[in-house]
Specification:
Mean pLDDT: 94
Order of helices and strands: EHEHEHEHEH
Low-confidence stretches: none
Number of strands: 5
Radius of gyration: 15 Å
Number of helices: 5
Largest sheet: 5 strands, parallel
Strand content: 15-25%
């Protein structure tokens, strides 16, 4: 199974970029992983919140294949402990899914069309984090899950 992380907009912070690249390099030893950055929408000041969500939603849905299993990172999603998230990933791997796609929406969330296409929602916390930080947190959790599944010493219970 391949895992992809879709995110809207680039990361400007060099420290975050370095950490994201570090965890991506670590993750490559365990799974096929792809970070797919969707460029920011141009002339956003002329758009309402609903229009912005709709345009971002169109860009997200263009990246989704019919066989992809789409999970949204959403504040109203299910929360997992790391061990439980690793178990969730293992079940998805065992189910024969070709590609598991996690999506990080824009600042206002997802359009109704994206919610309709999604097969689930996950929340990393009840707190709000920047979209750039969520990328790092999600990739680190994927790495942590891989080490848990391999019984390696990265995660401590």
């Amino acid at each position: 199974m391949k895992i992809s992380l879709l995110a809207i907009g680039k990361t400007d912070d060099k420290n975050l970029i370095q950490l994201i690249e570090d965890y991506q390099a670590r993750l490559k030893h365990y799974i096929k992983f792809n970070l797919d950055i969707i460029p920011d929408i141009k002339k956003i000041k002329n758009l309402s919140v609903a229009q912005q969500k709709e345009k971002e939603g169109e860009l997200i849905l263009k990246k989704i294949q019919p066989t992809d299993f789409l999970i949204l990172l959403d504040e109203k999603g299910k929360e997992f402990r790391s061990v439980d998230f690793a178990d969730f990933l293992q079940k998805k791997m065992n189910s024969g899914i070709k590609q598991l796609v996690f999506a990080i929406g824009g600042p206002y969330g997802f359009s109704d069309n994206v919610y309709a296409k999604a097969k689930g929602k996950i929340s990393l916390s009840k707190m709000t984090f920047s979209h750039q930080m969520i990328r790092l947190f999600m990739i680190e959790q994927l790495y942590r899950s891989a080490t848990i599944l391999k019984n390696e010493p990265y995660h401590h219970e």
